[in-house]
Task: structure prediction
Amino acid sequence: MNDSDTGERNFSIGELAGEFGITSRTLRLYEEEGLLDPQRDGTRRIYNERNRVRLRLILRGKRLGWSLSEIRESFDLYDSSHDESAQLESMLGKLEQRRETLITQRSDIDSALQDLERVETNARRALREVQAGNKRRRA
Amino acid sequence: MNDSDTGERNFSIGELAGEFGITSRTLRLYEEEGLLDPQRDGTRRIYNERNRVRLRLILRGKRLGWSLSEIRESFDLYDSSHDESAQLESMLGKLEQRRETLITQRSDIDSALQDLERVETNARRALREVQAGNKRRRA
DNA sequence: CCTTACGTTAACGTTAACGTCAATCTATTC
DNA sequence: GAATAGATTGACGTTAACGTTAACGTAAGG
Result:
């Protein structure tokens, strides 16, 4: 084991970037925006498994079209303190909001998929017809 | 019926913007980007039902995080000619790609919803505990 | 010791998706 | 007919999310 004593692997910024198909610049930006905070070896960034999980969450958020600040808010939501009831209630409200947008997003996806299938069957039919026409012309 | 002879209603840019919660600027931009092309009454834009349907599709795309050019590409895909088999095959490929990203997006949504539920039940539990503590303290 | 690879910060550049504002036109209303 | 409401084009401003470059440090290898 190259690292301290836990059975955990560590990663340089370049390794992590390569693995996830992003650039180092992007990782530094995410850190600047408070989405990641890797440890340091002197000045060098060291990423551990926990950081990788976070990164995966960030990228999932991006695939859903969230902005970096929306992603940060979701982290804040998840990490927020559980001691004041006012806090907890506002949190539950925000969670409910998120759920709603996720659900309309899912129904948007479903209708987009339906549209897609319509277009696809049309295209397949058209393709068969074109090919049939070609056969006749060659005969 | 205020308009020509078809039973269709027409809309000014302001009406349409108001109805969909966007600004006129946005509608003009979408037109500039080739996503909409309303008729004109002199210089004024006139939107019909067909334009509204398009707009709805645009906004659905936005909710899914698509860029305007991705949205335009999807329109191009839907409207593209059905006469050359090469065209049709490349089209089927692109459709397949779209389907894949939609499906990973949907599974992203599902896992995000699961995370959300975990956090929510935790928050509810914490809220009950806090409230129980308050009761005891008041007693 | 020199090169090469990889890292650092800082700063400026770029693109998309609008917002904002100015100058002007048109139709309606008092 | 003067004012008001909404429309037009054109241009410049703004923000987010990076890309790119400069200037520099550091560890490994030949």
